[in-house]
Write a structure and sequence with these properties.
mainly beta; four-stranded antiparallel beta sheet; 1 helix; globular
């Protein structure tokens, strides 16, 4: 199916909660927007952690977590070897999907090797008792970097592989060179080794022909979506495929120009499912599937820098095409670098000032978007339409979840009676020992979902 073109004419260490507050009306929903922390030194990645805190990277090298209620920021580590210049620095971060049992944090950043900027992928170990991060392993380094075009978005797939983007590092030709790590999507095992099923033996290369991917999302449908910066035209949303070519620098956007079509045919170029001219500078991607803000529900959200707004994209049933798009929060928050959700329908955006430079005093902040009129309700039991069963709803050492192989890759979320997300993981085995979970006494609901299917279980922790 031919993609649909979308053309637009158009002092911090423990910074306390601030009360900047405004209301914005969408179609029918009026949301509150509240700054929970300001004065940040260019936040790049924000993640809602299993501890109900926002985990954040700042480009100069700090990793911290922010209490979304009080706005208190707790520094976990400051990486001293980060080289932050232009748009480089400490960038992407991802937590291990089973973080409570495997408290690993993966980050991507730029550093100096002699006088050259390089990228490094680092694994850190979190100590819950000390509340600190420590360097553990360097998974990959020496990746060509630059002051701009570094990519550095990270994702862990259900089969426990680390996918991450690299930019062309201002060397356009390198994006088509399979021997170079620039302008690629790369794939590693979580210990830094090369998966045996990668396209090229001994190489982390997964796909090529990328300019600067800064958004990466694993959708409930199993597809991985990415957002990519174009030059002066054709910012893109695409679907990631193994060992495929995405065209840069020979192709910009879809294969619609005469001088692009031969290259597209001979290299099996993957065309985007959406693209924008003039460019909008897409930064992050988020799948929003909560009823709290109906205008955004079941939409692919794209945060943008240049246009300072959030785009919502409606996908077709297959997830392969965009059938409609809207724009929200136009110029409400300055440039929007990143976006996350807490699982209860609240959105959080990290802003990046009025331009790409790091002006002082810092104006960067995290803003909460919430619907004050939404009243959470407990999840009603659903038909058991997934091949999964729970043995022992009264949690004990023998309690376990047993699933068919067709359920592997499903998303598991555990909620308490107040609707708070207590635990989240991707099902990677057909049997899961629930008795190993350490929970406060009470009633919980376990939601198992894959694609459009969902099963809900009521669990009791003594």
């Amino acid at each position: 199916m031919k993609p649909i073109a979308i053309l637009l004419i158009v002092l911090v260490g423990c910074f306390q909660f601030t009360s900047t507050h405004a209301q914005i009306t969408l179609d029918q929903t009026t949301v509150d927007t509240t700054t929970i922390i300001g004065g940040l030194d260019i936040p790049w990645e924000i993640i809602w952690g299993p501890d109900d805190h926002i985990w954040m990277t700042e480009r100069y090298g700090r990793i911290s977590r922010v209490n979304p209620v009080t706005g208190v920021q707790e520094t976990l580590i400051t990486l001293s070897d980060v080289r932050a210049t232009g748009e480089s620095g400490l960038l992407g971060m991802v937590l291990h999907p089973n973080f409570i049992d495997t408290p690993w944090v993966f980050v991507a950043y730029t550093y100096l090797q002699g006088s050259a900027i390089r990228e490094r992928i680092l694994r850190l170990q979190f100590s819950p008792t000390a509340g600190t991060l420590a360097r553990a392993d360097t998974l990959l380094e020496g990746i060509p970097g630059a002051s701009t075009h570094n990519g550095c978005r990270l994702l862990i797939t259900p089969d426990r592989k680390l996918i991450f983007s690299t930019g062309d590092a201002q060397n356009q030709a390198a994006a088509q060179n399979r021997a170079s790590l620039s302008g690629k999507m790369l794939r590693l095992n979580l210990d830094g080794s090369i998966p045996t099923d990668n396209p090229d033996a001994g190489s982390p290369l997964w796909s090529l022909g990328h300019r600067n991917v800064q958004g990466l999302l694993l959708h409930p449908n199993g597809k991985i979506y990415l957002s990519e910066h174009g030059p002066n035209t054709d910012d893109e949303i695409s679907i990631l495929h193994r060992n495929r070519n995405y065209g840069w620098p020979d192709v910009v956007g879809p294969c619609d120009a005469q001088n692009e079509q031969f290259f597209c045919f001979t290299n099996e170029v993957v065309e985007p499912i959406a693209w924008w001219t003039p460019t909008i500078a897409p930064s992050d991607l988020l799948w929003y599937d909560h009823p709290a803000i109906p205008e955004l529900q079941n939409r692919l959200l794209v945060s943008t820098l240049k246009n300072k707004r959030i785009y919502s994209l409606e996908l077709d049933a297959s997830g392969d095409s965009v059938i409609s798009q809207r724009q929200w929060f136009n110029n409400a928050f300055e440039r929007i670098r990143d976006i996350c959700t807490d699982g209860q329908g609240n959105l959080y955006v990290a802003t990046n000032g009025q331009n790409w430079s790091n002006d002082s005093p810092f104006t960067h902040r995290i803003v909460k978007i919430s619907n004050p009129a939404y009243v959470p309700t407990s999840l009603a039991p659903s038909s058991q339409n997934l091949a999964v069963r729970i043995y022992g709803n009264q949690l004990s050492p023998a309690s376990r979840l047993v699933a068919d192989e067709s359920v592997l890759g499903a998303d598991l979320r555990l909620y308490d009676t107040q609707g708070r997300l207590v635990r989240q993981l991707i099902l990677s085995a057909t049997e899961l020992n629930l008795g190993e979970w350490t929970l406060n006494g009470g009633i919980y609901q376990l939601v198992v979902s894959k694609g459009a299917q969902r099963s809900v279980f009521r669990l009791i922790a003594p």
